[in-house]
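Incident review: delayed structure delivery

Summary: a single-chain prediction request sat in the queue longer than the usual turnaround. Root cause was a stuck worker, restarted by the on-call engineer. No data loss occurred. The affected request and its eventual output are reproduced below so the record is complete for anyone auditing the incident later.

Affected input:
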Amino acid sequence: MDIPERVSRFTILKILGRGAFGIVYLAEDPKIGRLVALKTISPEQGLTKEEEADYKAKIMQEAQSAGKLIHPNIVTIFDVFEFQQNTYIAMEYLDGLPLDKYLQKNKTIPAETIIDFMTQCLDGLSHAHKNKIIHRDLKPSNIMIVKDTLAKITDFGLAKRAGAPHSQEGFLVGTPHYMSPEQI
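Output delivered after worker restart:
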């Protein structure tokens, strides 16, 4: 797959990762000289128009949910925009590892560090809940560990506002291995 040189005003530097339908690029914002992560639909997925529309809606949902949350333990959303018929989120670039990869790399972690990471995640979730945002897909791959000390919650694509109607009856929302038993 060819990496675009530019997306809107952003200069693309490399691919950071790929998900089921999406791709995340490391990019530079030349206006303010900072690195950002740009998330969008992966062009080679061959999605139907309906699947693409659903994924674009998920990107917008993530931007609208996390974009309202300013907290040291939640990834910061800078912008959401359309460019050449794709929807993009420009967000804080986190130079670290997802918690699942961090745990694979660091076989033994002191209890104090684990407690600190958990406390940071709970602080972030508490802030989200006070702002009536429910994450709904919290799992190790959606928690970034930065500089071995900072935990940040990412991927609010399945988030919903507290009190909003439930998802369609009979459909699971989230990752089953990480869902509470009453949801399954």
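Verification: DSSP finds three helices and eleven strands in the chain.
Action items: add queue-age alerting; document worker restart procedure.
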